[in-house]
Write a structure and sequence with these properties.
- The protein is built from 16 helices and 19 strands.
- The chain is an alpha/beta fold.
- It folds into 3 domains: about 80 residues, Winged helix-like DNA-binding domain superfamily/Winged helix DNA-binding domain (Arc Repressor Mutant, subunit A), CATH 1.10.10.10; about 220 residues, P-loop containing nucleotide triphosphate hydrolases (Rossmann fold, 3-Layer(aba) Sandwich); about 90 residues, Helicase, Ruva Protein, domain 3, CATH 1.10.8.
- The strands form 6 sheets. It has a 5-stranded mixed beta sheet. Strands 10-13-16-5-17 form a 5-stranded parallel beta sheet. A 3-stranded antiparallel beta sheet has the order 1-3-2.
- The radius of gyration is 27 Å and the shape is elongated.
């Protein structure tokens, strides 16, 4: 299969799908909410302790619950002498914590420092994740062609990529370095990101809080969320999580902070309903077989098991497209039983001379760099004849960048002629003893 080249700041222009069904009904009373009243009452008290004097309306916004829920919590705390009314703003009480409330809040903080949006139940989370599975997203050839229009890529490769997206399961991209595997993976995530899904701030299990929403991963939809929706959820684009050689076994399980005393969801929990990219697969601190042993059941059955510090095991959805990108052949990394569970394998190899020329012209045009018409062929000849290498799609961008950097240093407009090309080649390629740029006519 031919390789690809990424053009920065691309935009996917395929048809905007309808938002997934979500938590559009906001609970207006404690009887309608899906977690125990005691959990919310404790959270409200800690919020009051941390905030000082606030209104019941402020409390509802901090907890991401309806005013009616916050008002019931206030009434319960007031009846137990944990808070008192300090004034009124219209019909809304202004409240403050009492000394008795402070003592109780201090004890609660010793158990967990979590304050913020009220959590949802694990059952509610599982139901919603299954409802908005990426495998329900139908992608067609024209959608993929639009998303990949900024790349030089063969139609057959696009077809394989589209099939992998529709599977919502797993994909193995492999081939030599610099052929565009990571780029393909990132564009795939951009295709899926056109969908809207609902991500909870946190979930509650046996009184323990597990945070899921992460603003570095989950990009909230810019349109304002309807007041009728359950604000404990955030409407986001489908997430994309990318991890490389830094991946460790600890990152794949619940992470309990002994200081804050609540859990942070692992990578795959944050990637649910989106894409998880394992870049440079085979170069992690975990051995490849360890990763796949960990995920042999999730890849096959769409469910994962996470461990809490108390030893309790949680069964959670594993609803994402997992993309492994590697410079190694799959057969060199793991045994056939594991490879079978990775549903699609696509080899991304070298480009042809015509594709290389096309890539070079696109790059130069995007960067506004003029060049001598003989330059692309001269670069091709050097790579093939002098270096005895195949043509990789990363070379045009890297060489043009070298010319641009040198031009900035010299304080002039970049122009690629033979001298500037030769200078870029010397700076970029690792040449063996006796290899000379001048050996190319």
């Amino acid at each position: 299969m031919s390789a690809v080249f990424a053009i920065e700041d691309f935009a996917c222009e395929h048809l905007k799908p309808k938002p997934e069904a979500g938590p559009t009904i906001r609970p207006n009373s404690l009887s309608e909410i899906d977690v125990r009243e005691a959990i919310l009452e404790d959270l409200a008290l800690k919020t009051l302790y941390a905030s000082g004097s606030i209104s019941v309306l402020d409390l509802s916004e901090k907890l991401c619950v309806a005013y009616g829920v916050a008002n019931e919590l206030f009434s319960s705390l007031r009846s137990s002498h944990c808070c008192q009314v300090t004034g009124m703003a219209g019909t809304v009480p202004q409240i403050a914590i009492t000394s008795e409330g402070k003592s109780r809040a201090a004890a609660l903080f010793s158990q967990s420092h979590y304050i913020g949006a009220a959590p949802i139940s694990l059952n509610n989370y599982v139901r919603q994740v299954r409802l908005q599975s990426a495998s329900t997203r139908d992608v067609h050839l024209q959608d993929v062609q639009r998303a990949f229009s900024h790349l030089v890529i063969e139609k057959e490769t696009l077809r394989q990529v589209g099939t992998a997206i529709n599977s919502g399961s797993s994909l193995f991209l492999y081939g030599p370095p610099g052929t565009g595997k990571t780029t393909i993976a990132e564009v795939i995530s951009a295709v899926l990101a056109e969908d809207d899904v609902w991500i909870p701030h946190a979930i509650e299990v046996d009184g323990q809080i597990i945070t899921i929403f992460d603003p570095t991963v989950h990009k909230a939809v810019t349109t304002s969320q309807a007041r009728s929706c359950d604000a404990r959820w955030v409407r986001c684009h489908r997430p994309a999580v990318l991890v490389g050689g830094e991946l460790t076994a600890e990152m794949l399980d619940l992470q309990f902070n002994p200081i804050s005393k609540f859990y942070v969801g692992p990578l795959q929990l944050k990637a649910n309903n989106g894409v998880l990219i394992i870049d440079d697969f085979g170069r992690q601190r975990m051995r490849p077989e360890e990763i796949l042993n960990r995920w042999i059941v999730p890849l096959d059955r769409k469910m994962d098991f996470l461990s809490m510090s108390c030893g309790k095991k949680l069964e959670v959805p594993f609803e994402m497209l997992v993309i492994f990108a590697s410079n190694f052949d799959p057969a060199e990394l793991v045994d056939p039983a594991f490879i079978r569970r990775i549903k699609t394998k696509i080899k991304i190899g070298a480009v042809s001379e015509d594709q290389f020329f096309d890539i070079f012209c696109r790059v130069a045009d995007r960067k506004g760099v003029r060049f001598d018409p003989s330059i692309p062929q001269r670069l091709i000849d050097f790579i093939r004849q002098t270096l005895k290498q195949e043509l990789r799609s990363c070379y045009p961008c890297d060489i043009v960048d070298q010319v641009c950097w040198a031009a900035r240093f010299d304080g002039k407009e970049p122009y690629i002629d033979r001298p500037s090309l030769d200078q870029a080649i010397k700076a970029y390629f690792s040449q063996g003893p006796g290899t000379s740029v001048a050996s190319v006519a």
